Amino acid sequence: MRTPRSRLALAAGLATVLALSGCAAPSPDKTDGSDAHVTVGLVLEPTDLNIRKTSGVALDQVLLDNVYEGLVRREADGSVADSLAKSHTVSPDGLTYTFTLNENVHFHSGNALTAQDVVWSLTQVLDDASVKDHATIAAIRTVTSPDPQTVVLTLSNPDSNLLWNLGGRAGQILEEKATNDLATSANGTGPFLLKKGAWKQGDSLTLDRNDDYYGAKAKVSEITFRYIQDPTAAINATLTGDLDVQTGVDANLRPQLARDADVKVTEGRTTDKYTLVFNPKVPALADPKVREALRTGIDHQAIIDSIGGAGVPQGGPIPELDPGYQDLTKEITFDPAKAKSLLAEAGQSNLTLTLTVANHYPTVISNVLTSQFKNIGVTLKVNRVEFPTWLNDVYTNHDFDLSLVNHAESRDFSNWTNPDYYFGYNNPTVQALYAESVAATDPKVVDEKLAEAARLVAADNPADWLFTGKSLTAVRSGVTGFPTDSTTSRLYLANLTVTR
Amino acid sequence: MTRFLLSRGLLLVLGLAVASVLIFLALRFLPGDVAQVIAGTDATPARIAAIRESLGLDRPLPVQYFEWVGGLLRGDLGNSVVTGTPVASEIAEKAQVTLPLALLSMLIGLAIAGPLGVAAALRRGRPAGFVLSGSAQALAAVPVIWAGMLLVIVFSLWLGWLPAQGFPRAGWSDPGAALRSLLLPAITIGIIEGAALLRFVRSATLGVMGQDFIRTAAAAGRTRTGALLTHGLPSVALSIVSVLGIQVAGLLVGTVLVENLFTLPGIGRMLVADVGNRDLTKVQSEVLVLTAIVLIIGTLVDVIHRLVDPRAREVTA
User: Which residues in chain A have Cβ-Cβ distances shorter than 8 Å to B161?
Assistant: First the structure.
């Protein structure tokens, strides 16, 4: 340890510069209670703000529910709650949805929300195939407004996913008369608004409380999201007090936060599915024995340990937060000897495969996989690529052996029912079961059909689900109401409070 | 002199023209495009194609190239494909972080390299000189990232004097806070740049010390150090200016790394993000601007060298 005196000596020159730049210790610009300004660290920044065009959960995180609102809202636990709608009813045949709108709703432009804005917004999405999530509400046949407070949707066939999808991008309500540029500004009805210049691209995005909000107003006046990709820099920002909340804490760096007693780390559930896909178009992987061998050779707990424990085993395609979940982890157990003999039976004792993985995931995952596969006689070459390269090679051109990405979206089982998706999985029984689950009007039937379909998918071993991610959030004491679950896709912050 | 200036100017324009073709083509070899990035992992090929068409990415490459260059000739750097904002204004905004950072780093580098380099030369063969040039060798080899992390641990986490990362949202309207947030990053680059420069200063000084005019001054009764400081340093400064011109490119690379490490919203971090988004119109203009800066500074250094040093004028006259 250095003595205070040598510390002084060490930094004498610097102190002079500091004095010259005329600055003492930074004065806290945060006040208490409802005037509070909260700074939240996020990892991924949206490419632009256009919710109609641009994909990515980074956009959903900040703008959905906070700035834009749909008739309904997705909750952190996976349920759906009324939002712009005060209440809604669904006819017993599942073909008519009637929404009663809240009163005195205004857009951030100052104009009142009308039922016509709702009709227009949904019609826009229905009519334009290039709009993001257009297909998710395609079951809607008509959108009408019998009176200024009511919107009625009629469906061509029942769709058990409709409410959930209305809580997503496709269901967000925009103002018909607005002319603002969606890519750089936002005009919604939510509890927070985006002022001009609020998005400093490459740095931060600030939400201000909407003081004219029709419902319970937000409890803090301003929230700044700061985008910090480097995990160490993010930890430092928390330790120096620059951040009040840090999302996406790297579990391996978590012990560093322990030195600040005012920071607590919460663990939340997510639908982050780290999916290792086996390309069925590769001859070796078309053999069911080889796929089973690869899954049998993976020690999931070792992978989870390597990332600091920030995951839970996921035996099949549906994660815990989604409908149709069941524990399938016992269906396939880690057994290197069995894996080896399966490979021998398949005549693949000397197999070499290439793994294409997006380079923003921890290197340690592919390292552990490489050594686990080596144990069963499979040579794994790892090709770490930029995400756009992954999109081009794997997603678009289906040119890969094994692929690993995190499918963060919730309720995306339908990818297993689309033979053209890069999974290349084609099982008519699964497709039929999924169609039955969509058409069902009873949530219990929906669950059962999905669970059955998921079990069939898992048994075919078209992929391995390495783990479901856990979201680690560091929260400074005095900050309450920050969501813990599903924070990688949604961050509804109207209930965020600060007391200090 | 006019002929020299003309030929240098021509070389600069030619250099930029070649660079524009190389940059444009090199970026087209990157796999994946912005339409795929926008469309994400739940898009159909039809939707990707529609986005590609709406952005004009389906047009032939020569058309896209000449449209870009045509804009450049009119002083228009183009617009971001993703957000539609003008690239020039984006660069101007981010330059408010990057330019002061580069300047500050260079000043710190010079402040280290100048005195210590001369001292190392004067103490050549003695323990102090050995320690100085030895530690310069070692420091110049230190990775920027590692040096930055170490400085953060000491000055931010341990002493709590300087911010560990970030730049004030209000920018330069609070100059003190802005400067504070640039200090650690600038020291990070400055130390390593300074160590590299130190070796140049040392060898330049040694070269000058062997010159006849120093010996003459010494014969006239000056001490060796005194002769060097009054008569030798202008010559040393001249060779440092040339080296600085070359170092600019290295400095820019340094800022890219350091901006990411310290999460500073500068040109380097923007460039990395834009490549990640495959916002190629923006990337190609940004890279061309950086190339232009390096080429222009190189040309300027050449010209200054010519103006200041009479010997260089005589050679081509």
Answer: 11, 14-15, 18
Classified as helix, coil or strand, B197 is helix
Which of B30, B79, B83 would best serve as a mutation to test chain A binding (most A beta carbons within 10 A)? B83
What domains sit in chain A, N to C, each tagged with a CATH number?
8-25+32-52+190-266+472-498 (3.40.190.10), 68-171 (3.90.76.10), 273-469 (3.10.105.10)
Contact B52, B81 (CB under 8 A): no
Locus of tokens 């058409």: A439
B57 CA: distance to closest CA in chain A (Å)? 15
Question: What is the Cα B192 distance to its own chain's centre?
Answer: 13
**A positions 14-33 inside 8 Å of B (CB):** 14-15, 17-18, 21-23, 26
Q: Are the C-beta atoms of A138 and A126 separated by less than 8 Å?
A: yes
Task: Determine which of B263, B270, B279 to mutate to test the interface with A (most A C-beta atoms within 10 Å).
Answer: B263
Q: Are residues B66 and B109 in the same domain?
A: no
Q: What is the rounded CA–CA span in Å between residue B189 and residue B102?
A: 8
Residues B48 and B137 in one domain: no
Q: Answer whether A105's CB lies under 8 Å from A113's CB.
A: yes
Residues from chain B that touch A229, judged by Cβ atoms under 8 A, are 260, 263
Q: Which domain holds residue B253?
A: 87-313
> Which strand (E) or helix (H) includes residue A356?
strand A351-358
- What is the percentage of chain A residues whose pLDDT exceeds 90? 85
Q: Taking CA A393 as the corner, what is the angle to CA B270 and CA A407, rounded to the nearest 5 degrees?
A: 75
Q: Which of residues 289-348 of A touch B (CB under 8 A)?
A: none
Q: What is the mean predicted confidence (pLDDT) over B201-227?
A: 82
CB contact under 8 A, A388 and B31: yes
Please, are residues A475 and A243 in contact by the beta-carbon 8 Å criterion? no
CA distance B78 to B72: 8
Tokens (6 digits) for A8:
């002084």
- Contact criterion met (CB < 8 Å) for A202 and B39: no
- Please write the tens of the pLDDT for every residue from A269-319: 999 999 999 999 999 999 999 999 999 999 999 999 999 999 999 999 999
Amino acid at A462: P
Residues 34-63 of B with CB under 8 A from A: 34, 36-48, 50-51, 54
The strand pair at A37-42 and A222-227 is best described as parallel
Residues B265 and B289 in one domain: yes
B47 → closest Cβ in A129, A385, A405: A129
- Dihedral sign for Cα B182, B185, B191, B197, please: negative
Q: How many CA atoms lie within 13 A of A22 on its CB side?
A: 4
Tokens of A337: 């000897």
Tell whether B256 lies on the interface with A, counting CB pairs under 8 A: no
End-to-end CA distance of chain B: 8
Give me the interface pTM, i.e. the ipTM: 0.86
Given B74, B104, B126, which residue is the final one in a domain?
B74
Number of domains in chain B: 2
The phi and psi torsions of A180 (rounded to 5 degrees) equal -70, 155
Q: Residue A228 and residue B179: Cβ atoms within 8 Å?
A: no
Chain-chain contact of A203 with B163 (C-beta, under 8 angstroms): no
B20 with B127, same domain?
no
Whether B248 has a pLDDT exceeding 90, the answer reads: no
Q: Model's pTM, two decimal places? A: 0.88
